[in-house]
Amino acid sequence: MDTEEYRQLLEHAYSNKKRSVRLVRIMMRLMACSMRVVTATYIEYGQFEKRQTPVGEYWVAKIQGKDSTDREAETRPRAVFIPDDLMDEIHRYARRKNLGPEDRLFTFSKKTLQRDVYRSAGNAATATGNEEFRKVSAHDLRRYFATHLLFRQRVRPAVVRMLGGWKSDEAMYEYLVLPDDVLFTELADAGLLGTSYDKLHQRDHAEKIEATTARLGELVDEAEPDEAEAAWASMQDVFDDIDAITMGAADDSASGSTADQHPDENQFSLNQFGSDDFGSMDPAAAAKAAYLACLVLVSWSVTLAPVA
Is 144 exposed, middle or buried (0-12, 13-18, 19+ CB in 10 A)? Predict the structure, then answer.
């Protein structure tokens, strides 16, 4: 699932006389926080606690995790981090039901939880016309957790593996079924969409630069002004380093000539694409500068590859 499909699944959560939409959403969100179905089935209200961390206080659910790739492995404790808004929903539900620390959050079976996910996905398929929803299972919510953190939020694999309770990186990756949005974003970020990437080799850079530039343009168009400003600020160090090399080389080659008397007429700086007299940044200029940076870096890679 991509993020929009996950939102649609929650929006069309199944309900009946015994289980409200809110309760089924809580159940699905817990599994999207990495809980296995059996863990969510037997979770007790007292397993949720507020934990002090080096970066503040956050809610966790203390559970006994079991590696699904090793049926004989002993259970071991782990913490499932719970978003604050989800925890607020759990508290409201617990107060309404007058739950104590040892009371189960859900009073129905594992199969019921699984069926409720199937029914919610069926509702989403009917509402959106996307028949792919009918393939969604409870396990896909846990896959969504790993995919979202690994490939959308760029959290390190070791951290995601620990949070999800997988025995190894290999076990975690084998569990994943990557959705199209992740696959196409990865290809776009690599500058491979629209290129003959099956023919590319180390020095075939032209198509890749063109695709990368197009991707940069898309990102600039999508960016908010404050995001563009932050991106430009982070690029300045790169441009300064390039200037130090390229302009330094120009100084050396022009020494003893008339060029050193008028360096501005003979030297080129990437920073000329930067801010105007008022300190504002032009996103289109930033994209051009990034493109030139790509050209310089590619030039270096071609020149220095034989040396390396």
Answer: buried
pTM over 0.70: no
CATH class of the domain defined by 3-141: mainly alpha
Strand order in the sheet with 48-53: 48-53, 56-65, 76-82
73-91: b or e for each residue (b if 16 or more CB lie within 10 Å)? eeeeebbbebeeebbeebe
DSSP state of 151: I
For residue range 270-284, list pLDDT tens digits in order: 555 555 554 454 555
Domain with CATH 1.10.443.10 in the chain: 3-141
Inter-residue contact 251 to 263 (CB < 8 Å): yes
Cα separation, 144 vs 172, in Å, equals: 12
Q: Which one, of 220, 224, 219, 223, lies nearest residue 285 by Cα? A: 220
85 three-class SS: helix
Separation between Cα atoms, residue 67 and residue 12, nearest integer Å: 31
